[in-house]
Prior knowledge:
3 domains, Immunoglobulin-like, 32 strands
Amino acid sequence: MTDPAAASPPVASFDPLVPRPIDLPTAVPASGDLAALDEAKIFSGPASPADRPAWRARLADWREEARRRLDYRGEAYEEPGAAWAQRCFTVAQVWLWDELFFDFEEQRFTPERFLEDARTRFGGLDGLVLWHAYPVIGIDDRNQWDFYRDVPGLTAVVQTLHEHGVAVFVDYNPWDVGTRRGREDRVELAELVRDLGADGVFLDTLKKADPELVAALQEARPGFVLEGESKLALERISDHAASWAQWFADSEVPGVLRAHWFERRHMQHHIRRWHRDHSEELASAWLNGVGIMVWEVVFGVWVGWSARDAATLRRMLPVQRGFSEALVQGEWTPLADIGAAAEEARVYGSLFSHDGLDLLLLANRSDVDVAGPLPGDWTPLHTGGVPARGVAAYVSMPDGEDSRWREVVDQVRGELSDVAHEPDAAFPHRRARRLPAPAPTGARREDLATAAVVVPAGEHVLTVRYRARETGMYEGAPYVDEWKPLPPRLHDQRTLERAVTLAHDVRVATREVTVSEMAEFLGTGERGDGPATGVTLAQARAYAASVGGRLPTEDEWQLAAGLPGFERLTPAVWSWTESEHSDGRTRFVMLKGGSEHRSEGSDWYTDGGVRAPEFSLKFLLPGLGGDASPSIGFRVCWEES
């Protein structure tokens, strides 16, 4: 997520398709004070090869001076339990209810299925962020801890991931200040970490954690890894073992990541969440010896990876994992001299030398394949040279079978033998489709059906209003290839027009199903004339089917709300509709009506308050009963034949 409160240029000068000034790489001055480099995201690479030796020397001077100035100690990297982060080259962010991770029909988690897909397409995962609350938090008073603790079987999911060698991050939302209050966040988070057995915390909207939070987490689990979002302050690299390289624009000649140059043990994960072309951040991660965040379902919106970029990651990971020691401990020469021909072809390299091994990582920034081999005594780890917008690796090591790298080289080459470059860079589109309504299970209740408003058959044109969120609306990503969406692109009110054709008249109940009616259906003893809430979508459908009907679609609900006789019980609550959609990865339901509940204090909360009939809320569907809410009720409709 992004922080809408962050400083931004005036709206008139904001172009969301180009990097903001704070995203741009920082030039390294040839002389003078170097302290300004403390604030860089990436140090830009010099265009001329002749300038690069001096550039590398200046970077080394800055690092030495900055460490001395900060009395740098690197506490986060001394704990043996945190060493895994230095080898965490690929992390995925997954919504708990992603349909690869959760089976809605069987209502059970399927982490093995998710991991197998990642292994096949990307080369496997080293870490996983279990995303839990946003963007549904705020629908009622449940806080961020409830959205973890109320999920049955989540501890077993973490155990399964660990059995497959995958580290687990939980998500911390510091902006959650308007839901149910309990103990201090640091207490709740530390206890959650202990209970789930999590390995790290992703700091949503935070670049760094407060020292008190760091101390609480380290006490809960020594060696715990904190990963901040975006640029990490230089002085906090010492106690944050990882960070996102999110929206880091590189220079034309690839540059150097400031945090990783400062502390080679610090892991960064490149990510541009809305982009359909990931070749630039893949090249930067490769040349810097750091990782990638794979995030294909961005808060319910499909932003899938192309076959080309997925294949590039498959080519990277065996090398990074096999030679992680050289990447972390070796002598690093960024923009190594690999000859004029490579420079002309826009192929750039990083050299990592360690204990008799030279590892040369090459990235091709052009759209043309570049054939190998390189001049000199180099052994290719990949076949076929350096593909367009792709990567390749070469090694050089002492002759003889006694080289400790020989076995590693053979293993990596074996893993890469069936990993071919894939030129297809097309975006793999997905389209959500509305799922069919369940068939009635009982006879039509005429006493209920006659007490209804009739929406006539035919074509209707509707105005729909909604708030622009990262969830998008009906189809597609709302911020394609954008950098950091900011207001008024983010969280502003939008309007669209929809045409719908009803084949038959539809009778929509004048009011919601009451507490007493639902209690009778469930066989409980509750009584009340208010709307039945705390009802899952499945339970609402089951009730509707039992009286010979179904839930109204969002369009039928909206049309009915404009007719005489349509009522809303008190307290006002959102209504389930039969507009459930899936694109194969995300299930969502359109809610109508609004509720009296409103979570205050952050724009990240879902929409609350009583709403006009034309307002629609795209609600990502949780499983295992998590969709039941005191803010959501339902009414029934009957379709005339």
